[in-house]
Amino acid sequence: MEERRNYNNRPDRKFNGPRKYSPRVATTERKFIIGRQPIIESFLSDTNIEKILIQKNAQGEGLSEIKKAALDNNIPIQLVPIEKLNGMTKANHQGVLAFISMVKYMDLQEVIDFVVAKGETPMFMMLDGVTDVRNIGAITRSIHCCGAQALIIPDKGVGALNEEAFKSSAGALEHIQVVRVSSLLKAVDDLHLNGIQVFTSEMRADKNVHELDFKVPSCIIMGDEGRGVQPYLAKAADYFFKIPMATNFDSFNVSVAAGIVLYEAMKQRLFPASK
After folding, report:
1. Residues 12/166/74/216 CA torsion (nearest 10 deg)
2. Residue 264 belongs to domain spanning
């Protein structure tokens, strides 16, 4: 029987606020980790992992340990044919390859606790189905400029926070907390348990964005431009808003819309009389 190691909630790990990321390290030295034992050791050394590719029907020592550690740390696993792994490296990959992440993903509760302990009112943004990394980078830039503290994304169905996302963010990704969760719906439940109100965009909403109160602890959900926020997730929100437009054009780009909402929230907090 394989020894079970705890890669999560290690006693030597303390959350001391925003992490400084070094994207050049990930892009110029190594983009992935090859082999079972190196991947296992990467969890022990606190290396940031984006996702793990495992050969279909792979068996043997170390695999269950890798899968357990990935589950504990909300790291997605993708089963792939051996040809895909062979095409990525000529080394002996042992049926496993892990992508190094440019971002240190944080735990949602830790981020909430840290923001509150600093005496700040939480203002987070959650993205549902936004796949264009340039949009994600631009949204992150607005998050930082407007004083929001964190970006919440799912572990699947969202664009990767890669070099292009960092470039589009103009470095803002180095200054905010990024939370990756296995379930956005559960994340909404956790936000509610911490007294954080959830707002979501809806083109048919009764109220315009400037009519809502963003001075309260808030999380704003923005969805994909085509389908919007998924119905099951929107149903869990507390308030709905729309962004008025002067024409009957389809909609704003999602990064522009996010910037408008974040600016409104910032304006209300910095200049309360303007609400």
Report:
1. 90
2. 105-274
Q: Give the model's confidence band at 7: pLDDT under 50 very low, under 70 low, under 90 confident, else very high.
A: low
Number of domains in the chain: 2
* Residues 82 and 118 grouped into a single domain: no
DSSP conformation class of 159 = -
Residues 95, 143, single domain; the answer is no
Condensed to tens digits (0 to 9), the pLDDT of residues 52-77 reads 999 999 999 999 999 999 988 888 89
- Which residue, 83, 100, 117, sits at the end of a domain? 100
How many other β-carbons are positioned within 10 Å of the β-carbon of residue 182? 13
Q: In 3D, which of 232, 91, 106, 248 has the Cα closest to residue 178?
A: 106
Q: Which two tokens stand for residue 191?
A: 């936000």
C-alpha span between 236 and 5 (Å, rounded): 36
Per-residue confidence at 25, pLDDT binned at 50, 70, 90? Answer: very low
The SS3 of residue 122 is coil
To the nearest 10 degrees (0 to 180), the angle between helices 184-193 and 108-117 is 30
Q: Which of 7-16, 117-126, 250-259 has the lowest mean pLDDT?
A: 7-16
Query: Domain ends where: 100, 117, 137?
Result: 100
Q: Is the pLDDT of residue 28 over 90?
A: no
Does one domain contain both 134 and 258? yes
Question: Does residue 258 belong to any structural domain of this protein?
Answer: yes
